[in-house]
Amino acid sequence: MKQIAQNYKSGELAVLDVPAPACRPGGVVVRSLFSLISTGTELMKVSEASMSLAGMARSRPDQVRKVLDQVQQQGVVTTYKKVMNKLDSYTPLGYSLCGVVTEVGRGAEEFKAGQLVACAGNEHALHAEYNWVPVNLCAAVPPGVLPEHAAFGTVASIAMHGVRRAEVQLGETAAVIGLGLIGQLVVRLLVAAGVQAVGVDPVADRCRLAEKAGAAVAGSPDELDQVLTELARITSGRGADHVFLAAGGSGNGPVETAVRLARDRARVVDIGKMKLDLPWNAYYEKELDVRFSRSYGPGRYDDKYELEGVDYPAGYVRWTEKRNLESFLDLVARNELEVATLIDRVFPMADAARVYADLKSGAIKAVGVLLEYPVPAPDAPAPATSRVLRTTAAAKAPSVRANEKKSAVSVGFIGAGNYASSMLLPQLAKLGTVRLAHVATARSLSAVNAQRKFGFTTASTDAEAVLSDDSLDAIFVVTRHATHARFVCRALETGKAVFVEKPLALTREETDQVAEAMAATGNDRLMVGFNRRFAPLLAAMRKGFGAAAGSSVTRYLVNAGPLAADSWYLNEEAEGSRFAGEGGHFIDTLSWWADSLPDEVYAVRGPEKGDVTATVRFASGATGTIAYLTGGSTRFPKETMDAIGGRRSARLDNFKTAAVWSGRGKSSTRARGGQDKGQQAEMASFIEAVRTGAPMPISVDSLLATTRATIAVGESLLSGGPARVLAGRQASGGIGERA
Question: Does 571 have pLDDT greater than 90?
Fold first, then answer.
């Protein structure tokens, strides 16, 4: 299928061939008829992509601060790779469309195939021929509403939520500053609600359009006195009860104009993205109530609502994203809201790159621009969820007999997020013994980005396509934590070698299922991404420490730091705790250091949410303490490890330096070429084991014991006492037993 995307590094905007989305539970696949170009939000995004790196930095100082913190913790090289990986990727455009349901997923039975729907979401209602859309971001279009009008649904919901934030009442007066697409819709909604409106915008045509929609008067900032005169007339000199800031840009003019239009104690609602340097005296003297309007309404940025379909009861939240979308469609159906005059131009989707360029340059001056999609023939096949890259460089490796070493290992990836794309795939791509054959991701562009960067032969949007690919020798599972155990079991059943990023599992039941899958299939070719034991600096430190490591006492301090507000790690109910997701790294490192499996753990919580301090006792008698803390400085090193035993001491400082003290001597080592946490050696070891049939780099008993110990930490936190770790492949039912 076709999708519009932009590369933030090069600024290129293109119509790409991508795999169609697979239908997943909780949503529907929608074939687009019309999608709306947001001439405000999207053009701002397109403009940012054409900036230099310095320009991007100036426009997003918040992101610059994050990058500087990462440099301090992870080093320049690692941070640069991650930032460039994000920038040098195609990103989607679009968030408002109307289309026809073609496939219904489990849990989305309120919709049916062939139904006309309006869709929302900057990750779901994209400028693409087909989209998978969750149920709470999809609304049925009533009879009589044209699809090109329904395509305005998302942007209209943004305007509607802004009007609701003002709590307007019948007979009041409002001023709208900025008469672009959002402002025009705000004017129409106010008029429909019985509120008199005035408008301000520097473009005369937009002012006239607002007046035709029912505004009492609209004028440019140079004509503000005329607007104020009319406003005084219709309000008996009081001024506007509400002022809506629907403008953009870096100037402070809209904020200052709002004061002149507002009455005493009026409400000022910010809908657009602009400079907000509030003149204190003016806002104080009128005691203005400044409010923000967040996107389409309640539910926005809440994964439980948007992705999992958990609705808010109407008694508590009357107007959600979906209800705003439905309300807009109902107003249009009852001819109480008119959007036809907002449509300036309709272009074929194939011309999208030129349309964006003309909008950006000003060659096209428009408020509402729609993209129209081709209608497939009745007998046309369903869109393919896989895309094959036609290139001789990605030719299939020659087959080999079972008793021979493979000349190249054919690899498939399920998931290709930022970690996989910046830390694993670059290492695999360097190996001459790897053929990157198949990648599957939930989002079409993620698969195409991985294919473009690393040369995968096939890109898919369905994990089953990778699992059923008989050409593969190994399958990598690099998805969200809650899916790991399920994909691992399924991959083991195929008879292929399996690499899964940590954690292997989140619960005792999932761990047992993996062990049972290995027993049932006879396939124990499993590796978990515990990469730190492969770090060259740490390996050198352990060698220098010698046999004393087996009975040493270690302390591993992890300065985990706070999570971003939109991080999926915060969804502990679905994805497990932060320690459940990451703690296995450190337990595995200490287990490898002591050359012994964990036997018992005892854990306590810290002062911040997510803080864990866990003491691990190993079968050899060695002990280790892991302090996983979230409240430290973001500029402090992320990981430090100390070890004492056999009259020796050792320290690892954030994989940058390592030292061993023995007798009166000290040996120090410094990392060359930046921080190396072992991914390169880890990938090389795994691939070589698959290629030659040698044992996996980490034993299955160790992988299972580390996983069980990580889960036991969580159970120790709940019980308040120590928890025994039962090792071995048949240790079902005993995880977390009190010691």
Answer: no
For the chain, the structural domain boundaries read: 2-152+303-372, 161-292, 386-528, 533-678+698-738
Nearest C-alpha neighbor of 356 from the set 64, 126, 43, 145: 43
User: Is pLDDT larger for residue 57 or for residue 627?
Assistant: 627
Distance CA 334, CA 329 (A): 9
Q: Three-state SS for 343?
A: strand
CATH fold label, 533-678+698-738: Dihydrodipicolinate Reductase; domain 2 (3.30.360)
> Which residue carries 């001023």 as its tokens?
175
Mean pLDDT of 459-464: 96
Does the pLDDT of residue 713 top 80, yes or no? Answer: yes
Once rounded to an integer, what is the mean pLDDT over residues 263-277?
Answer: 94
Architecture of the domain delimited by 161-292: 3-Layer(aba) Sandwich (3.40)
> Residues 342, 152: contact at Cβ < 8 Å?
yes
- Give pLDDT, residue 388: 87
> How many whole angstroms separate alpha carbon 473 and alpha carbon 130?
32
Q: Residue 48: its pLDDT value, please?
A: 62
How far apart are the C-alpha atoms of 245 and 186, rounded to whole Å?
Answer: 10
Q: Which of 25, 1, 20 is nearest to 104 (CA)?
A: 25
Residue 125: both structure tokens together: 């209602």
> Can you say how many angstroms the Cα of residue 695 is from the centroid of all Cα atoms in its chain?
36
Residue in 556, 537, 547, 540 with CA at minimum distance from that of residue 648 = 547
CATH among 3.40.190.120, 3.30.750.24, 3.40.50.300, 3.90.180.10 for 2-152+303-372: 3.90.180.10
Q: Which two tokens stand for residue 321?
A: 């994203």
* Residue 113 CB neighbours (<10 A): 11
- Closest listed residue to residue 451, CA positions, set 394, 495, 525: 394
Tell me what pLDDT residue 11 has. 84
pLDDT digits (tens, 9 = 90+) for 384-443: 998 886 543 333 433 333 335 778 999 999 999 999 999 999 999 999 999 999 999 999
* Topology agreement, domain 161-292 and domain 533-678+698-738: no
CATH class name, domain 386-528: alpha beta
| pLDDT higher than 50, residue 156 | yes
Rg (CA), the chain: 29
| Number of alpha helices (DSSP H) and beta strands (DSSP E) in the chain | 25, 33
Convert 410-474 into a string of H (helix), E (strand) and C (coil): EEEEECCCHHHHHHHHHHHHHCCCEEEEEEECCCHHHHHHHHHHHCCCEEECCHHHHHCCCCCCE
Task: Kindly write down the DSSP assignment for every residue of 233-256, as one continuous string.
Answer: HHHTT--EEEEEE---BS-SHHHH
Name which of 270-279, 384-393, 509-518, 545-554 the model is least confident about.
384-393
